[in-house]
Prior knowledge:
The chain is mainly alpha-helical. 54% of the residues lie in helices and 10% in strands. The strands form two sheets. It has a two-stranded antiparallel ribbon with strand order 1-4. A two-stranded antiparallel ribbon has the order 2-3.
Amino acid sequence: MSKVVEMSKKVENQKxxxxxxxxxxxxxxxxxxxxxxxxxVEMTGNSYSQTRQVNEALLEQETKVFYPQMHKYVKADxxxxxxxxxxxxxxxxxxxxxIAMGQIKKxxxxxxxxxxxxxxxxxxxxxxxxHNKRVLEQIHLDSIDNGTAVHVExxxxxxxxxxxxxxxIGLRADEKEVD
Length: 179
């Protein structure tokens, strides 16, 4: 190999190394950056809407609604033990003894179970998503107040005008007209 070719390759290698080093210096790891509590971060309306939709979908996954199974106490003769009897301090020992002896049984109260108020449970992540929902709703309300958010009817009109001018708007790629 000639010295000129060898020198040329060395120069080329050095240039490549310099470019790589420059790119490494330009790259900033996003995980190493954050925001002060009062910093304002901007995003497009589309990004905001997508963020809200994803948050809602995840919140729904992390939220479970259950209906509690209600019970009542029934005496051996089939009559219900009243709430008053259960809460009467003077009869508490007698009731406990009757339960132990099998004279009173705890059974599912079908009617009360069907009429029970649902109980909502959320995971830890669900609670964080609920907090995010409140933050996103506040951003939306602030955007309405400052005029950034546009009424849905206005957006529909604008979309209709755009689609009248371009019949491909709103279509999937496989549905668009080809010129």
